Amino acid sequence: MSYPGYPPTGYPPFPGYPPTGQESSFPPPGQYPYPSGFPPMGGGAYPPAPSSGYPGAGGYPAPGGYPAPGGYPGAPQPGGAPSYPGGQGFGAPPGGAGFPGYPQPPTQSYGGGPAQVPLPGGFPGGAMPSQYPGGQSPYPSQPAPMTQGTHGTIRPAANFDAMRDAEVLRKAMKGFGTDEQAIIDVVANRSNDQRQKIKAAFKTMYGKDLIKDLKSELSGSMEELILALFMPSTYYDAWSLRNAMKGAGTQERVLIEILCTRTNQEIREIVRCYQSEFGRDLEKDIRSDTSGHFERLLVSMCQGNRDENQNVNHQLAQEDAQRLYQAGEGRLGTDESCFNMILATRSFPQLKATVEAYSRMANRDLLNSVSREFSGNVESGLKTILQCALNRPAFFAERLYYSMKGAGTDDSTLVRIVVTRSEIDLVQIKQMFSQMYQKTLGTMIASDTSGDYRKLLLAIVGQ
């Protein structure tokens, strides 16, 4: 589906970033908080600032490897792979081939959501970049002043008591039957950090592993969703990558969705976690599971070395646009390494400026040029990077839509996106979803899922 007014002919003056008059001061170089509102609230900084090597302090299990004896999911031995969830289907590619025309919010600013904890030094004068607030009509013509709170749908619970929650969960699972509603009320209303504390309290109080108990009470998609909610977020990303590559076949879309959309810090955490949990080298696994230009793109992503300077260099954007044109549309054949170099190293705001410069210069849309010059996984990977630069929530909204469109539901993709974005930018994803598909994310989830699984998803999405 194409989106009205995209690609625009000649961009309106406003979307230019940074605001006029503040070119040099906004925000300080070297600080690139992502549009998605990292870090999530709750831990303050993201992830729980390991002090003694990884994992360690801050809600991660004690050194000695995760899981604690007794297992998280299926206690993978070094070199082995986690045994959960059964069989194929985790993150299988959605039916929709390719990504259609891409919506572009005129006022997207590259600042984090309001929950952003500014890096030391903060934004000048304590001000934050503006971003559309939760309740507003999707895109105000001027960026509205920021509302306080996060852009995730899940916020840390006030007056949180891990022991009380552990007791509620124990009661919900004791005796005959399971009180699923009680479980939903607890997990959907606690941040990931708080869920880690509940897990620890449960083991301290009852000498049992909460995850094992939950697995024995639940099954199917509901089990997958609850387990995902109880994994520390870095571990969940690492586990999803491992799961996408183990066994026969590779779920390339999962690799793209995680490696092409995360921040440098998150990618480095994922690489460390992958090594410590599964005793494997992520880059080696990628090399043995992929090939060609797609392999090179993912290896580039694995480095977690993208420039994160907030300031846009318009001169460089012009030059890059020219280079991309000459590497693709302006010649016979394609110089793939030029695309890889620019898309893997430039900051997201810089790439956004490059897309705009390209459409002025070549009078065509860079996303369409990528579709014409590339195919298959490398095309999806490059387009994902550009889509994140233009409008990250729209990228995730589209993935959610295709996970539910047509016959059957790609539950793993649905679960993964709802869980991983729930404390980051799910509010914006919902806004983009309604704007792009003329229905709310909640209605689509409600018509595509059932039972407690539906109830819990809707509780997270905030319907």
TrEMBL record:
The lineage of its organism: Eukaryota, Metazoa, Chordata, Craniata, Vertebrata. GO terms for cellular component: chromaffin granule membrane; endoplasmic reticulum membrane; nucleus; plasma membrane. It comes from Bos mutus grunniens. It comes from the Eukaryota. Keywords: Annexin, Calcium, Calcium/phospholipid-binding, Repeat. The keyword Repeat applies. It holds the Pfam family Annexin. InterPro entries: Annexin (IPR001464), Annexin_repeat (IPR018502), Annexin_repeat_CS (IPR018252), Annexin_sf (IPR037104). PANTHER family: ANNEXIN, ANNEXIN A7. Calcium/phospholipid-binding protein which promotes membrane fusion and is involved in exocytosis. SMART domains: ANX. The keyword Transmembrane helix does not apply. This is Annexin. A pair of annexin repeats may form one binding site for calcium and phospholipid. GO terms for molecular function: calcium ion binding; calcium-dependent phospholipid binding; calcium-dependent protein binding; integrin binding; phosphatidylserine binding. Residues 1-18, 26-38 have a biased composition (Pro residues). Residues 1-54, 71-153 are annotated as: Disordered. Residues 86-99 have a biased composition (Gly residues). One of its GO terms (biological process) is epithelial cell differentiation.
